[in-house]
Specification:
Layout: H1 5-17, H2 22-29, H3 33-40, H4 48-58, H5 63-73, H6 81-89, E1 92-97, H7 108-116, H8 124-136, E2 148-154, H9 155-159, H10 165-181, E3 185-190, E4 203-207, E5 214-219, E6 222-226, H11 229-245, H12 249-298
Parallel strand pairs: 1-2, 2-3
Antiparallel strand pairs: 1-4, 4-5, 5-6
Helix pairs in contact: 2-3, 4-5, 7-8, 10-12
Length: about 300
């Protein structure tokens, strides 16, 4: 099993931030320089003892131990583990979503469908574990001092059918309920009419007390954290533009409510269309049984 690039990169990043040479770090942790080099370059998975030595040397609590355990246990994709750590610590979370509603605000049914990704061969136990992990992320909103969460949803997030119309209707209602419950949460919708203000890539800005603001960008190959001052400044400016181009929080709530009603009507229409088909199937099945009984009697 190879080490996820993010874990090796984080070891190297923290070591350099502490101004510790690779040779000195190897000596402090009790490992060879070759071992440290291969971990940082992503050649292989480190041991738990090495992760413990990293935390002890860097003074990072159980940061690397926790990250390694999550990778080994498969709780999250390897590239996502650093984000989860930052999300739990964050004082502010700014999200821009383009297709899927952000994980913090997903219902269980929506999360399970999003995680399966239309792949029927994914083991149910894997989906169960990932869905449970995603739902536990909601805990950050329940903290005594929750982070300030600002979410900009492209209209496509509300209209893209994930599962059935009923799943989407419940998801819309959950969004509205969460904005009512949490004063620290603000949701805005970027409508199709303002799409020229958007970009095609979702991203999240996290403010953490232990370091500078970071931007996480997700792509086909996974996600990546950027904390360069220029990159973060550009992302902040873009996010401010997205917020300014979106509907106000009150207008967004009304917009989500209307789309919820549309999904609900579609769910009712689908149910009504399915009822005649089910009745027809029952009639065909009953007729077949009668014919079989008649045929059986004639041959006796």
């Amino acid at each position: 099993m190879s080490i996820p690039p993010s874990l090796g990169e984080d070891v190297r990043r923290v070591r350099r931030a502490r101004r510790i040479s690779q040779t000195a770090f190897a000596s402090a942790t009790g490992y060879t320089q070759s071992y440290v080099s291969r971990v940082e370059s992503g050649e292989f998975m480190p041991s738990l003892k090495f992760a413990e030595a990293c935390d002890r040397t860097f003074g990072t609590g159980d940061l690397f131990v926790g990250q390694l355990r999550r990778v080994i246990e498969g709780e999250y994709p390897a590239w996502f583990a650093p984000y989860i750590d930052a999300e739990r610590e964050a004082t502010a979370i700014r999200d821009f979503s383009t297709i899927f509603i952000m994980g913090l605000l997903q219902t269980e049914a929506y999360a399970r469908l999003a995680l399966s990704g239309g792949r029927p061969n994914v083991p149910v136990r894997d989906i169960d574990a990932k869905a449970s992990s995603r739902l536990r992320r909601r805990e950050v909103l329940e903290k005594p001092n929750p982070p300030r969460v600002w979410v900009v949803l492209h209209e496509s997030c509300l209209r893209a059918r994930i599962g059935s119309a009923q799943v989407m209707s419940h998801q819309m209602e959950y969004l509205l309920d969460q904005t009512r419950r949490h004063q620290s949460l603000t949701v805005q919708v970027l409508p199709y009419s303002a799409t020229e203000a958007a970009i095609g890539t979702p991203f999240i800005l996290l403010d953490v007390p232990s370091g500078p603001t970071s931007v996480f960008v997700e792509g086909p190959g996974g996600g990546r954290r950027h904390d360069g001052p220029e990159t973060v400044a550009d992302a902040v400016e873009l996010y401010d533009h997205l917020r300014a181009s979106s509907l106000s929080p009150r207008e967004s709530a009304a917009f989500i409510s209307d789309i919820r009603d549309e999904h609900e009507r579609n769910a009712v229409d689908q149910e009504q269309l399915q009822r005649p088909a089910r009745r027809q199937l029952r009639r065909v099945g009953a007729g077949s049984r009668v014919r079989r009984r008649r045929g059986s009697g004639a041959g006796q």
